[in-house]
Amino acid sequence: MTRYDYLIAGSGLFGAAFAWKARKAGRRCLVIDKRPHLGGNVYCELTEGINVHKYGAHIFHTNNKEVWDFVNSLVPFNRYTNCPVANYHGELYNLPFNMNTFSQLWGVRTPAEAKAMIDAQRAEALAALDGREPQNLEEQALCLVGKDIFRKLIKEYTEKQWGRDCKELPAFIIRRLPVRFVFDNNYFNDSYQGIPIGGYNVLIERLLEGTDTRVDCNFFAEYGDSWRETADRLVYTGPIDEYFGYQYGRLDWRTVSFKTRVEDTPNYQGNAVINYTSHDVPYTRVIEHKHFEMFGQAVYDCPRTVVSEEYSTEYKPGMEQFYPVNDDRNNALADRYRALAAAEKDVLFGGRLAEYKYYDMAPIIEKVLRIEL
Ligand SMILES: Cc1cc2nc3c(=O)[nH]c(=O)nc-3n(C[C@H](O)[C@H](O)[C@H](O)COP(=O)(O)OP(=O)(O)OC[C@H]3O[C@@H](n4cnc5c(N)ncnc54)[C@H](O)[C@@H]3O)c2cc1C
Q1: Is residue 51 part of a domain?
Q2: Cα–Cα distance between 285 and 299 in angstroms, integer?
Q3: Residue 326 above 90 pLDDT?
Q4: pTM over the 0.90 mark
């Protein structure tokens, strides 16, 4: 039986990037994943010639040139720029809040007109507080952007996401609500963004080139305590509470569920991302996957399209663990598990599940590139 330097449990971006780095350093790795495919949450399923982001839309964005150059050295990235649109009872608004949005909301034409409108509405909200601090998300948002933006673009969308009234949500969830007084629909402020040409699976394939892999292989069922028979070290990227047998209890997560279907039209909604910001529509967003990778005539050269409705769903064990819940209970619980992890010999806990921390993709790559083997 082959002996490895590293057994890597989890083939997501953390595990795959770690395997790349270890291989470059001459180490032998075995990467396993309990799912039937490699790639973790960036995995895409090919349907109708379109890469469908199976675990939610993924847009790579970063200010870090080293990370951007690294991923582009493996697979060139396209020029996709995230410009979501909001649909409120059939009215369309550009996001993030910028001069296009303000013009659509109020018919204003200049930054001065837009600023005057927002300032007047913010002043109204501050006057209503009468010197007190905002006590909940609703008061906070009204003070930041005023009633029109709050009512049409924030309130019901946020309530769908959290399953609670904005008045019952804490103010800290929305610390800042950036408004831009320029006509710029680019969602990210980062210098670099895009999607790997050919999809994320190509990125994962390149990261794992030359590395032994096994899918449908659960670390606990197939290796567990005996992993040292296979490798000198373990890189564990699964849930940290599961690794320790949930001995202190389970960590909570938030999740999203998807309803994906094929539409018999080349262009269903004209954009990759449309947010539905009113309660009458049960889903929060509709993703049309082809727009991440097909531009101009290519949209029409592919005769059908694939769309996914996204629903905010209450998490129950067994569902996809998407976003950590960083409230006091879960933070304290995660700290207790982290203390156990720190004492574990020859095991590196890395990635969003093992660290119980939300990471975008670029910071994951950055973190792995900095690890000293
Ligand atoms: C809905 C959603 C949308 C996102 N959109 C973006 C975006 O637009 N831009 C961006 O930069 N980032 C985005 N992210 C973040 C991105 O998904 C993460 O940064 C990235 O997936 C983290 O990689 P990872 O390896 O830590 O985790 P994962 O990709 O989750 O990989 C962990 C892997 O470990 C495997 N595993 C777990 N337990 C075991 C076990 N016992 N045995 C074997 N294998 C196991 C899992 O099957 C999984 O494949 C998004 C995240 C979510 C949830």
Answers
A1: yes
A2: 20
A3: no
A4: yes
